[in-house]
Amino acid sequence: MCGIYGYIGKNDAYQEVLCGLTCLQYRGYDSCGIAYFDDGFKINKAIGTLDNLPQCSEVVSNIAFGHTRWATNGEVNINNTHPHISFDKEFVLVHNGIIKNADTIKRELIDKGIPFYSDTDTEVIANLLSTLTGRIEKRIERLYKLLEGSFSLIIGHKSGKIYLIKRFSPLNILKSDDGIYISSDVSSLKDGLLYTLKDNDIIMIEKNEIIALSNTKINFKIHENKIKEFTMGKFKHYMLKEIFDTPKGIENTYYYLEKQNIRKIFKHFSEFTLLGCGTAYHSCLIGEIYLSKIVRYKVNSCLASNCEISKKIKRNHLHIIVSQSGETADCIKVAEQIKKHNGKILLITNEPSSTMARMADYKIITKAGKELAVASTKTYCTQVFVFAYISQLILNKRFRLDIQKLKNDLDKYIAKIKVNSLVNKLKDKDKLILIGKDIDYALLLEASLKIREIDYIYTIPMYAGELKHGTLSLIDKDSIVLSLNTSNDKTKLDIVKNEINSRGGEVVAVDELIDMSKFNQYFKPIFAIIPFQLISYYIALKKGLNPDMPRNLAKSVTVE
Ligand code: G6P
């Protein structure tokens, strides 16, 4: 959460930073701000998205950095918006992460008479740094030791020098002919030479030179521009584009998987724990069904936010972490515990250069392409595809997939889905029950999350048979219940439907909106979730909401 971006070079730095931050807005859009150097740092800030910031600076500057915020410490207001400036104006900084001992430090500083104007932990960093004495590099080194928690920081000194430090949160530098770029997200960077900072690095940028002040060897590697992935093309929103990107993402993931020796990884293990948060956890639930019911492995799924690993892990036990971003703090915390207890990690991620990708023993990369809408769509489908593929591969040595057919089927299928009349029925509802069984229930957890997160409708996913054990009391003549039945047994949900109908409620079978019966059973969950993704997208539009930027949320949650 929160994106930080900086530029030092021959171009207009304010414009470069504004442009870089647009690629990071998916990480947070509560408020934003840019500091640019003109004989000292000047700051522009705004509430909401980057459109609300002045679109140019008063003077053309060659040094600037900025921030797009997802509020954690302190409400959304201008005082809490980054960049933050120290009380004596010596330092200006932007921060991604959370300082765990900020309250203690703040109290000590207040006792010394240091004034504070915000509720953020970031202002605490700025003021603490200003009160330390000695050479700047020594002060930054000391700052690093005094701060607990996670952070990546761009620190501007009043002289125009820029300092970079990080712990846990990612930070990257890119050198190109145009200048030096800094970003919390590799994919927002252009072509050039890339260095990903390590914890304990202290780096200074002065007059277009990158200088390591710590014991660091800055090894640059070639980086290819991914910025084209940040455009929506003919679509109005990233979410819709990303739903339509799904077939291509699955095709690319398949070609990638074909080149990996997946059987070899699995050969070493017979017990599996699947871990993730949010949508990624929902794909773990599908993975659990595939690996336990089809392959007959011993498998359980855990929410990373609710998982504590405190004893030695057996050698035959593999932890599979699913994380689109590879940056989710709750997953990183569990990954650290797994490593501490000698466990092995297989990471399924869409971001090969993420923090967790560097921690994992084995990696499977979903090739969905950059996902920017907060609600995950195509990455969920590629994660489910990976589990379906792995279980088929392990089960059947001769497994072959006609990927072209699967891709074409999906392309045609998505183009044919019509949800308009259902969306009109649902858009004014304040609650919605979704019922299904077995794997359909796991899919409905994800469908429900989509409708909750971007449409603000209270959704209740239920095992169909559980409805009569309490929740039936919610059914009245205004109720609509969405059902899903991807099995070939069409009688399964009939009894429950009768129970709802006799109380005046209406049941809409989403699987009957579009025929999915002819598709391969193992890949059917991918077909089944897409109508729900489209339903949630179009409800948001009807309600006048921005589906890409739901309130209060951020794409990758880098705080515990
Ligand atoms: C946040 C996002 C969800 C996402 C979850 C896990 O809550 O809003 O869309 O599923 O984090 O993210 P990850 O990057 O680990 O898959």
Could you please describe the fold and organization of this structure?
By secondary structure, this protein is of the alpha/beta class. The chain has two domains: 226 residues, Aminohydrolase, N-terminal nucleophile (Ntn) domain (Glutamine Phosphoribosylpyrophosphate, subunit 1, domain 1, 4-Layer Sandwich), CATH 3.60.20; 305 residues, Glucose-6-phosphate isomerase like protein, domain 1 (Rossmann fold). It is 34% helix and 23% strand. The chain contains 15 helices and 23 strands. The chain has an eight-stranded antiparallel beta sheet, with helices on one face. The chain has a six-stranded antiparallel beta sheet with strand order 5-6-7-8-12-13. Strands 16-15-17-18-19 form a five-stranded parallel beta sheet, sandwiched between helices. A hairpin with a 4-residue loop joins strand 7 and strand 8. Helix 5 packs antiparallel against helix 11. The protein binds 6-O-phosphono-alpha-D-glucopyranose (G6P). The site of 6-O-phosphono-alpha-D-glucopyranose (G6P) has 16 residues, from helix 7. 6-O-phosphono-alpha-D-glucopyranose binds next to helix 7.
